[in-house]
Amino acid sequence: MTEPTEPTGKTAARRTGRGFGRVLVTVYGILAFAALGRSSYELVVKFGEAPVAYTLSTLAAAVYVVATFALAIGTPAWRVTAWITVGIEAVGVVTIGALSLADPGVFGESTVWSGFGQGYGYVPLVLPFVGLWWLWRTSRSTSEERTA
């Protein structure tokens, strides 16, 4: 499959929200919606029971919302935002996942990232690495365009 070209013959930058990126953005959107719904309920109704866990769930939801928009828009500035949010997501799910497995009561209650996202079918564990791969893959044509 050939890369799309501009009239000047240069390789066009690949957008993060096109092709496979549409599937990725859809999965991020679904996870953002689920995490936002869960964290909103926990903050309003149950915050006093486990404030650290529910704050972490809210942070995860915010990361998913921003990452969804950043990947969907895919302009250079949003691409940087996507690298940052997806990177935070990867570090968060690995760190929180490991801590929650080492000591299941460490946060009081489970978070979106507890047990490496077990409550969400491990999608939170796989998704950031797929997202980072996609950002890297689509950035290759962007960097090739800058050097041409």
UniProtKB/TrEMBL annotation:
Provenance organism: Promicromonospora kroppenstedtii
TM segment ranges: 20-41, 53-73, 80-99, 119-136
UniProt entry keywords in alphabetical sequence: Membrane, Transmembrane, Transmembrane helix
Protein name: Integral membrane protein
